[in-house]
Every structure is written in C-alpha cells, then in structure tokens.
Structure to design on (262 residues):
C-alpha cells in the first residue's frame, strides 16, 4: 500500500519544516510544489531534500491564482502513483500517535477516506481557539474537521472549485466527504493557519488577531517541535507580545460574539 503526501506551499517558512518532517517517516513520497515563495520556504524544502533525497519531489511551479491552484492540485493528484493520498499543507503538523493511527487505519482497509479533528492555535502556539469556532460540517459533526487522506481507487477522483472552496470529488461530482466509506478518526493534527507563517507577504493571509485559551502546562506539542532542526529554521516557540497581544485581547471577545451571532 503506497501512500504519497501532496503539499502545495507559498511563503510557509515558519512551519513547513515541521509539517513535512512530521509525516515523512510515514509517507512513501512527499510532493512539495512551491507557488512563488519569496521567504526561506524554498531553502527549507531543499534542506529537507538534502536529507531525504528523492523521497521528496520538489518543484518550483511559479505563482498561481485561485483557479490555477485547483488545476495544479489536479496535476499533483494525477502524478501521484500511489494507492492513498495524504493532503498536507505547510501549516499542518502531526503528532506521531495521530499519523500512526491514520496510516494503520489505511492498511486495515475497507474505507475510502479519513476525516480527522484539528487543534487550532490562535494568537501564538500557546493559545488554542475554541472548538465553537470550527464550522466544518462533516459526517454529522461540526467543528475543526478536515478530510486528510483518501483512496486513489475512488472512481473519477478529481479536484474542482477555486482555492478556498476547492474539494475532491467522485464520479458523480459529489464531495468525498459524502461517500459511505469515509470515516471519522480521532487523530488530531496541529493546524497553525491563524499564526504568522512567514516574514513575507502571503497570497492568502489567514493570520488572526485573537487570543485563544492558554494550553495547560502538561500539554504536549507535536514531537517534531522538540527535535533538532537547522539553525536557519524559525523557532515555533515565539509568543505574541506588546501591541499585537493587546490588539488580540481587544478583538477576541468581539470575534467570539460574532461567531455566536452568525
């Protein structure tokens, strides 16, 4: 059973090392295609490739708009010569236990896809967004959820809709989440989408001025954060401070109120 990870990036220097390294032991190949990064992202991916060689397929494909992004996602899907796809973004870092659960469940068989929960920091790595902020509705659940792995054997598997709304569909143009053999697995990953992901401007910025609930002292972050990494890799342990923290504290109750009113 071959499993390939698909990863499309743009200015992800703060977390791309940790994202790729958190899954690379478990994937047979990792496709990382860069869409015009101007920060350290390309250097970081090249460093990973120095370690892992051809296990990392790295390409610089140039800038794309939200429609071209979908076409590139389709091209990546078609080039993946494997049995299962693991979707990996540059802001997604896996706990070892979680990725092992996903891989193990894939090998058990009789399923077509896996939906997992996300743990979402906001403000900085030490503060987590409330679950009520998660609005994805999948398999009868609502929250921070995502379809992260699926079988390539699904008939007419393809990608449609522009970036931000794009999804994987089947022969009936139904989203994979609607298929009967898609399951929920309690194997969370850390999704740092709302943190600062680069020192350069990002094409689709999702940083939020908001401060979540402080993690408990016993909270354990993904193991890859504690491992040795090159000195030019930005530290994941930075705290929100000063005016940025004050702004986040001011806006947090307003954001929570807005979520409850919508």
């Amino acid at each position: 059973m071959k499993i390939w990870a698909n990863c499309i990036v743009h200015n992800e220097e703060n977390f791309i090392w940790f994202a790729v390294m958190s899954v690379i032991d478990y994937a047979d190949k990792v496709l990382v295609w860069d869409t015009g990064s101007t920060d350290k992202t390309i250097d970081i991916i090249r460093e990973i490739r120095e370690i892992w060689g051809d296990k990392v397929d790295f390409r610089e494909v140039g800038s794309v708009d939200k429609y071209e992004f979908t076409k590139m996602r389709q091209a990546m899907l078609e080039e993946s010569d494997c049995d299962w796809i693991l979707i990996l973004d540059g802001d997604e870092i896996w706990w070892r236990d979680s990725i092992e659960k996903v891989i193990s469940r894939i090998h058990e068989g009789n399923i077509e896809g896996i939906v997992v929960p996300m743990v979402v920091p906001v403000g900085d790595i030490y503060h987590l967004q409330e679950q009520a902020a998660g609005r994805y509705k999948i398999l009868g659940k609502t929250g921070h959820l995502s379809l992260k792995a699926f079988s390539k054997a699904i008939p007419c598997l393809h990608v449609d809709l522009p970036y931000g709304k794009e999804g994987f569909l089947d022969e009936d143009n139904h989203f994979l989440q609607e298929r009967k053999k898609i399951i929920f697995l309690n194997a969370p990953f850390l999704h740092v989408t709302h943190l600062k992901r680069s020192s350069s401007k990002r094409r689709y910025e999702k940083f939020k001025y908001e401060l979540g609930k402080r993690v408990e002292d016993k909270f354990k972050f993904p193991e890859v954060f504690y491992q040795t990494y090159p000195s030019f890799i930005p530290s994941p342990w930075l705290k929100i401070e000063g005016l940025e923290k004050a702004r986040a504290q001011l806006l947090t109750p307003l954001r929570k109120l807005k979520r409850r009113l919508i």
Remarks:
- The domain at 3-118+140-190 is CATH 3.90.550.10 (Spore Coat Polysaccharide Biosynthesis Protein SpsA; Chain A).
- The first helix runs from residue 16 to 23.
- The chain has a mean pLDDT of 96.
